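Cross-posting from the chemistry board since nobody answered there.

I work mostly on the small-molecule side, so proteins are not my area. We synthesized zinc ion and want a rough idea of how it might sit in this target. Sequence and SMILES are below. Is it possible to get a predicted 3D structure of the two together?
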Amino acid sequence: MPLSVPDILKRNQLSVTESRKRILELFRENGGALEHNDIEKRTGEKFDRVTIYRTLQTFVEKGIIHTIPTTDNSVRYALCKDECTEGHHHDNHVHFVCEVCSTTFCLEAVSVPEVHLPKGFKPANIQVIATGKCKNC
Ligand SMILES: [Zn+2]
Ligand SMILES: [Zn+2]
Ligand SMILES: [Zn+2]
């Protein structure tokens, strides 16, 4: 049984606000990644950009969602698995962006391969984005 939306917020010591509840519900309903604009559209302009932005930042900090950079410089967000906690993300999986339907998928089962960087380079974050045609297209 997955936790209810208010339970997820409480477990992360977040008060249950209308915007947090609604935005988290959107991610649960959607199943894939969402952009800021998607969220703005789907909440029916009920929340302003700043509220949405702050809510997303809080969720990222708490380990509820993670960011996925895209080639057009927009950022997408997707739900994390349970292993992520405040300040510690464990989302080292490959992301897939479909060029046909532009859906972004978290490929949880596919780990990012180890990358060997030259001496002196310390990576904080390595992202692998695969693009192409998804299973639904
Ligand atoms: Zn995460
Ligand atoms: Zn597709
Ligand atoms: Zn992901």
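Reply from a structural biologist on the board:
Welcome over. Reading the output above for you: The mean pLDDT is 91. The helical segments are 5-11, 18-30, 36-42, 49-62. Happy to explain the token format if needed.
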